[in-house]
Amino acid sequence: MNKQRLEAFTDGVYAIVITLLILDIRIPEVHPATLGSALVRMLPQAFTYVLSFFVVGLYWIANHRVALNVKQIDGTLIWLNLVWLLFVSVMPFPTSLLGRYPLQGVPIAIYGVDLILTNLTGLFISIYLMKHRELCVRAISPQTLRDQIPAYAIPNGVYGIAIGLGWILPWLSYVLYALVLAGLAVRFARINNPFQSSRRRG
Amino acid sequence: MNKQRLEAFTDGVYAIVITLLILDIRIPEVHPATLGSALVRMLPQAFTYVLSFFVVGLYWIANHRVALNVKQIDGTLIWLNLVWLLFVSVMPFPTSLLGRYPLQGVPIAIYGVDLILTNLTGLFISIYLMKHRELCVRAISPQTLRDQIPAYAIPNGVYGIAIGLGWILPWLSYVLYALVLAGLAVRFARINNPFQSSRRRG
Amino acid sequence: MNKQRLEAFTDGVYAIVITLLILDIRIPEVHPATLGSALVRMLPQAFTYVLSFFVVGLYWIANHRVALNVKQIDGTLIWLNLVWLLFVSVMPFPTSLLGRYPLQGVPIAIYGVDLILTNLTGLFISIYLMKHRELCVRAISPQTLRDQIPAYAIPNGVYGIAIGLGWILPWLSYVLYALVLAGLAVRFARINNPFQSSRRRG
Amino acid sequence: MNKQRLEAFTDGVYAIVITLLILDIRIPEVHPATLGSALVRMLPQAFTYVLSFFVVGLYWIANHRVALNVKQIDGTLIWLNLVWLLFVSVMPFPTSLLGRYPLQGVPIAIYGVDLILTNLTGLFISIYLMKHRELCVRAISPQTLRDQIPAYAIPNGVYGIAIGLGWILPWLSYVLYALVLAGLAVRFARINNPFQSSRRRG
Predict the structure, then answer these.
(1) Which of B12, B75, B86 sits opposite A11 (nearest CB)?
(2) How many angstroms separate the CA atoms of C11 and D182, rounded?
(3) Measured between CA atoms, how close is C97 to chain D, in angstroms?
């Protein structure tokens, strides 16, 4: 398989998932006079929608950052990428569940588990690339990977805490999910590796 | 991230949003003999569908016009683009709401607010590009941007008036939304900047 | 706008419409023992699904054939293309309507009207390209266009007859729609213009 | 039609089908206290979701492997590809049916029939390419095709057995579907034809 089609397929899946999220926000069926208050009651759902929108956007950026260093694709990498896409494609379900049952332990846990699994798949892909330097533009040294461990461990640790808090202080779980997202967003916005943008042109 | 994948992702999101709009037009469940009149009652919904279809199409064209002048992408620009896509992706919700509760103040306002936010995000992106000329094909001078202000201010002003009229003369709000759309459509159809079409070939 | 992004957007819309059609085929809610017969009752719906699938596929091929001769894009062409996409994007609605109310005059008429409008938009685009030879790879002579008139007039004529028959012999309308599709499919499958496949490579 | 747009359209359809599958997993409507057990009852549905996700992913990889050897496209090939996409696009329906009526003969059979039809279409395309060597990068000899027969016959044979078992030992049908998938996945992951990845670059 050539890399370009894998990227096109991957971009397609991300674009569809991020857009499908809105379909789960159903129009309320109420008397027009009470529409305003019905919409206000939908605010937790709107929050999880926006959260998931940026989570999917974030994973898409993360996917690209990994892909930039890939020059060749093998069968295993295609399957690892499919697993990654599986956990991303599932996202509308926990989002919808959390919107329907806000501030409940079970949906908060399912949401967090999906985030952790997506994160770990990204880590497995990085490990696989480290071991197969023939697939990489620049070989990934064990040191480079070790340096990235906190970028995987910290979000997952916070997700784990958020899952635990779901049964005790559910609103704090929301705050933690949003904080991880904000942290990663800032991190990604700052790193403007010239390697990235110049690659296709150079 | 390379520009090509950002464009592919962006085009994907626009293509999906514009196509998903039809899913909100549900088949009426009536006795076959009254199907004709049931469909006639759906005309306001059909109007908002067509309006939103061209609104999304318009924003897609606007996005391209901005992208044509971008030669390099940084982290902030990716996030600004994601925010832009968020407001576009949300569009099926106000469209559906307006179709379900036609000629009501609240849905007209939500529809208009989404239009204004999308519009303002486009303006912020232009300002950001003006300040980062290293990302641009041609540097955007403050004068160029000032010349574009009416193109942002007039639509938003009319949207604001349409929102206000939603509680008084809701059908006039519809007319105003459609007028802005028609105005921008004519404007975009006329400008055939040779720079645009020759870029990838030159 | 560059041509490549217009094509990517257009391909995206077609791909989404053709795939969304299946969403309108709802799982029957019956006792498991009667599932078989419930599925048999869905056969007219399955027929309209397959019909629409190939109709959308056909229009996508038609769109490509036109696009192959376009070397430059102007604002009007973008809007004409958007109108074309509008009529294609609408297709899930008449498909779903016809599946829900099979063998009825009104849905058959709406389905046919959408087919005619899509067809006519294709013709308008060809006329526009004839008048703007600067946009074309090869100028379209009035004679070339006149030669294509039957390819537009015959399907539309048959669609018109099918619409009329919808109130008298609805099953014959289905046959006519399927016949036009089969005729165009055979026609497109036969024409293997070398110009087509060699264009990007040459 | 140029090959690139056919691939873009095909990739789009696969990306949408694989992502739409999640839409059929509906949020349960229960009292929050019983949400956990309601979700546990959805496990068979989750199983068919994951199965179909990888089935679609597998067919996408199979499509690419065929496409890599295609250098030119004719009208027949476009239609054969459309038929292939039809059977793939249908997939959300049997998946949803199997999720709603698990361990039942009829849905297991419909699921298997769709898998067999998709598989056979792939075989027909290979036969067509064998007979039209002018369309191929490397001519497919009858011997090469004969060597591939088991790769088509074995899965279809197992699918047929799974269909038959659907009325007797339905859980075994699930196991057989999953086994074929796992077998093909391992096979595809192993074959890392250098021809594949070097094609666009060489």
Answers:
(1) B12
(2) 32
(3) 18
Reduced to 3 states (helix: H, G, I; strand: E, B; else coil), residue D157 is: helix
Nearest CA in chain B to C73: B197
Rounded to the nearest angstrom, the minimum Cα separation between D68 and chain C is 16
Confidence of residue C54 (pLDDT cuts 50, 70, 90): very high
Residue tagged 């307006």 (tokens): B98
Give exposure, D97-132, as e/b (b: 16+ Cβ within 10 Å): bbbbbbebbbbbbbbbebbbbbbebbbebbeebbeb
Question: Is residue B1 scored above 80 in pLDDT?
Answer: no
D87 and D114 Cβ atoms separated by less than 8 Å = yes
State percent of chain C over pLDDT 70. Answer: 94
Whether the predicted pLDDT of D20 surpasses 80: yes
Q: What is the rounded average pLDDT of the residues B51-73?
A: 91
**Number of domains into which chain A is organized:** 1
Q: Return the partners of chain C (3 or more C-beta pairs < 8 Å).
A: B, D
- Residue in D86, D95, D134 to test binding to C, most C beta-carbons within 10 Å: D86
- Contact status, residue A16 vs residue B9, Cβ threshold 8 Å: no
CB C36 within 8 A of CB D106: yes
In the block, which residue shows the tokens 């030992």?
D169
Distance of alpha carbon C13 from alpha carbon D144, whole angstroms: 37
Q: Which of chain D's residues have a Cβ under 8 Å away from the Cβ of C61?
A: 1, 78
Residues near B154 by beta carbon (within 8 Å), at least 6 away in sequence:
B180
Nearest CB neighbour to C106, from listed B12, B35, B53: B35
Suggest the residue from A4, A6, A18 to mutate for an interface test with chain B (most B CBs closer than 10 A). A18
User: What residues of B are in the A interface, CB distance below 8 Å?
Assistant: 1-5, 8-9, 12-13, 15-17, 20, 23-24, 72-76, 78-79, 82, 85-86, 89-90, 92-93, 96-97, 100-101, 104, 106-107, 110
Picking from B53, B64, B174, the residue whose alpha carbon sits closest to that of residue B108 is B174
- The span from the CA of A180 to the CA of A139, in Å, is 29
**Within 13 Å of residue B96, how many CA atoms lie on the same side as its CB?**
22
Per-residue pLDDT, averaged over A15-35, amounts to 92
Q: Which of D3, D75, D96 sits opposite C188 (nearest CB)?
A: D75
Task: Kindly report the nearest CA distance between residue D168 and chain A, in angstroms.
Answer: 32
Interface predicted TM-score of the whole assembly (ipTM), two decimals = 0.89
Range of the domain at C147: 3-25+44-198
C-alpha to C-alpha distance for C202 and D72, rounded to whole angstroms: 12
Q: Which residues have C-beta within 8 Å of that of residue C188, sequence separation ≥ 6?
A: C58, C61, C62, C65, D75, D78, D79
Beta bridge partners of residue D70, listed in sequence order: D136
Query: Does the structure show a pLDDT above 80 at B44?
Result: yes
CB contact under 8 A, B74 and A197: yes
Q: Give me the count of residues in chain A.
A: 202
How far is CA D137 from each of CA C157, D67, D72, D141, D200, rounded to the nearest angstrom? Answer: 43, 10, 8, 12, 13
Q: Which residues are within 8 A (CB) of B86 and not within 5 positions of it... i.e. 6 or more apart?
A: A50, A53, A54
Inside any domain, residue C56: yes
A110-132, pLDDT tens digit by residue?
999 999 999 999 999 999 999 99
Q: Where are the beta strands (DSSP E) in D93-159?
A: none
Tell me the C-alpha distance between C74 and C131, whole Å.
13
In this prediction, residue D200 has a pLDDT band, given cuts at 50, 70 and 90, of very low
Average pLDDT over residues C12-28: 92
> What pTM, to 2 d.p., does this model score?
0.91
Banded pLDDT at A202 (limits 50, 70, 90) = very low
Residue B136, SS3?
Answer: strand
Asked whether the predicted pLDDT for residue A171 surpasses 60, the reply is yes
